[in-house]
């Protein structure tokens, strides 16, 4: 999902009263520091005695709030995936999750390595070290795919399931011409290269690095599920180009340990774009 780091956003972010109210309920007296907003009204804030969102304060958790009926993945579904994945790999520890009439939320502990809070690879300080970050992102994705077991994973998200969900989404119905175009473009997915537990949104912003730029952890696993590994690889490589600039995709793939697969990359980027278009329609 395309989103903005609040710290580099041109417009200051107003934290809505509903998020302040929730923060007061979950962590009485905590300061509320906006960290990230996505384009569908979701807002992530950090709760705690912080001077700035990037400062190191291990006990300050992250609160993601998503308004009711947002097309973003449901924080409660994300909490289920975090709890499951947390038995096998490094993802944020779930402290609280819930829903009320206004929206849903997820409260997670800050991920720390060596006593310091790991921070997103999208932070501007990684731009001068984009090659290092690109390698860490490839290494991290490989670790994710190698570590999580497909045979016991309760979440499945194959290309065919995703295409079916697009064509049957009642909140963004397609007309006959659109459905035919979608079917032509995406109805015949390439056979899976290797089925793994995919992250589902393995972008630069959702990868955390440690203080020196090594892979630390993934966040934002609301779309985690078993699928072809190129579903993640296609999105990760494109995100690296978009966030850091051209020329780094071969580094990501080399760090992951795979040769480029142009057909699967093209297919899974097109599928991602079709889903993004539907989300935008639902939001409108
Ligand atoms: N537990 C956590 N530890 C460290 N950083 C976090 C944590 N949770 C969220 N973040 C930061 O907040 C950002 C937004 O959270 P995310 O779950 O990705 O929201 P969205 O679904 O809106 O993209 C992440 O990119 C990451 O920088
Ligand atoms: Mg995210």
From TrEMBL:
Domain Aminoglycoside phosphotransferase positions: 77-267
Keyword annotations from UniProtKB, A to Z: Antibiotic resistance, ATP-binding, Kinase, Nucleotide-binding, Transferase
Protein's GO biological process: response to antibiotic
Source organism, top-level taxon: Bacteria
Alphabetized GO MF terms: ATP binding; kinase activity; phosphotransferase activity, alcohol group as acceptor
UniProt xrefs under InterPro entries: Aminoglycoside_PTrfase, Kan/Strep_kinase, Kinase-like_dom_sf
Family: Belongs to the aminoglycoside phosphotransferase family.
Protein name: Kanamycin kinase
Lineage: Bacteria, Bacillati, Actinomycetota, Actinomycetes, Micrococcales
